[in-house]
Amino acid sequence: MKSTSRYDDIIHLPHPTSKKHARKPMADRAAQFSPFAALTGYDEAIDETARLTDQKLTPGEEEQAALNEMVQHLCEIAPARPTITVTHFVADQRKAGGRYIQTGGQLRRLDLTARTLSFVHGTTIRIDDILPIQLQQNSAE
């Protein structure tokens, strides 16, 4: 059978392998082209869109009255540095909404002008972001 291609003499030779350098794994060979991916950041954008946030709740009249009563009580006992736990809203930095978290500790200061309360450990929370305040049993009452 007569050769019809210019490369018939080399087509069936084994793949050349370097004696100095090992072959690059398949995953690494594919990764060298990743900087040119057309959808760079697409997975991160999908994950961010899928991440859920809560909406800030507005307390009802009874809840607001109970919160105001607790704030007044804390004003009276603040010098004793009571231990409290506060559920409050933290706004999300990247999208609308946020989440509710609990912060607890010894009360350092209650500022009604700035409408904030500060803990001994350094956290400051806006009173308008608070839902309930729980006074610990061992604190001044």
Description:
By secondary structure, this protein is of the alpha+beta class. It has a domain at about 60-135: Roll (SH3 type barrels). It has helices at about 25-30, 40-50, 60-75, and strands at about 85-90, 100-110, 115-120, 125, 130-135. Strands 4-3-2-1-5 form a five-stranded antiparallel sheet. Strand 1 (about 85-90) and strand 2 (about 100-110) form a beta hairpin. The termini are far apart. The model has no long low-confidence stretch (mean pLDDT about 85).
Summed up, what is this model?
The chain is α+β, with helices and mostly antiparallel strands.
Present the secondary structure layout.
Blueprint: H1 26-31, H2 42-50, H3 61-77, E1 83-91, E2 98-111, E3 116-119, E4 124-126, E5 130-135
Number of helices: 3
- Class from helix and strand fractions: alpha+beta
User: According to CATH, what is the class of the domain at 61-135?
Assistant: Mainly Beta
Taking all Cα atoms into account, the compactness measure Rg is 32 Å
Using the 3D structure, state the CATH architecture of the domain at 61-135.
Roll
| Alpha carbon gap, first and last residue | 104 Å
Major β-sheet, in short? 5 strands, antiparallel
Number of strands: 5
Spans of 5+ residues with little confidence (pLDDT < 50)? none
Rounded average pLDDT: 84
Classify the helix fraction into a percent range.
Answer: 10-25%
Instruction: Estimate the global geometry from the Cα principal axes.
Output: rod-shaped
Report the portion of residues in β strands.
Answer: 25-35%
Give me the strand/helix succession.
HHHEEEEE
Report the CATH topology name of the domain at 61-135. SH3 type barrels
